[in-house]
Amino acid sequence: MIPQWKKKFNNKEILKNFNINLKKKYISQSEITKRLENKISKFLNVKYVLAVPSGTVALLISLMSLGLKNNDEIVISDRAWVSVINVVNILGLKAKFVDVEVDRPIINLDELKKKITKNTRAIITIHMGGRFCDMNKLIKFAKNKKIHVIEDAAQAFGCKYKKKFIGTQSDIGCFSMSIAKTISSGQGGFVVTNRKDLYKKLLKIKNNGLKNIKTINKWGALGLNFKFSDILASIALTELKKFNYYKKKLISLYKLYEEGLRKTKNVKLIPVNIKNGEIPQYIEIISNNRKKLYKYLTKKNIDIRLFYPSMSEHNNLKSNCKNSLVFSKKGVYLPSGPDQNKKDIIKVIKEINLFT
Prior knowledge:
Layout: H1 11-24, H2 31-44, E1 48-52, H3 55-65, E2 73-77, H4 83-90, E3 94-98, H5 109-115, E4 120-126, H6 135-145, E5 148-152, E6 160-161, E7 164-165, E8 172-176, E9 189-193, H7 196-205, H8 230-241, H9 243-260, E10 267-269, E11 283-287, H10 290-299, E12 305-306, H11 322-330, E13 331-334, H12 342-354
Parallel strand pairs: 2-3, 2-4, 4-5, 5-8
Antiparallel strand pairs: 1-9, 6-7, 8-9, 10-11, 11-13, 12-13
Helix pairs in contact: 1-8, 2-8, 3-4, 3-7, 9-12
């Protein structure tokens, strides 16, 4: 079976780090987690980084840090992973969904402007598959309206917009380090910000609302235990070293698919603007015969994944996001990842071209 995602970890170095962890009793969040946060801070050129258990937690504590009230409006790009709407609902906020661009599953800025009301407190832009909107326009618009911006950069680590890293240009950036991400610790995530006030709030929220557990005079504000672990941090550190390798391989894979599927009428490759600083996290296509294509490729021992529903389809809500629905009904993830075998990918391309 040709896997839907393939990436090789540096097992030798990870095991070496594990032994160091156990010897020094670095298992819970400690020095190695701090080292990872500092490395990410330096890499992304952002002031503050907090490692957390997942990208979902990153989103949750980011919204919590903004001091939002019940039923405050949060405007969200309609193409997103379900964790976005889940954290909004958990916090008792009101979600409003914005359609995406026609050819790319990222927030449509013209549609965004129509959704803003006096009750809008934050915008969550989702950088799907390493793609992003015009961040200068978004930030300028939000600043004029005095609205917070959160970047869900779970799928966009290392992408750059006008020489600045995606996830670092807004109030808060949220990243994932789950298994099918460019930089992975198996599970995990982190929050980044350049605002000291937000960093202090985030720091307390991930530690049960407390600043220092050694000198507790009174209980703090609302928070939970969202600590990371040095075991996971040691994995992520080995991954960070391999970023340039991963980036090169992901771009090479995209170009292989791009050339191989150029003439086919069966599918359309969802474009990634590599020249503009985007990195193709996954290989994604649109197919008018998605169900048949899924069955056909599965029989050929090729593992693919169908796009999930859009946010506005959550709990059977009626959607007026027409572009978004095209992606949810016709989108497919093809075998992706930096360590795919070239011969396997050539086979995938061949079978897609033969599919009728």
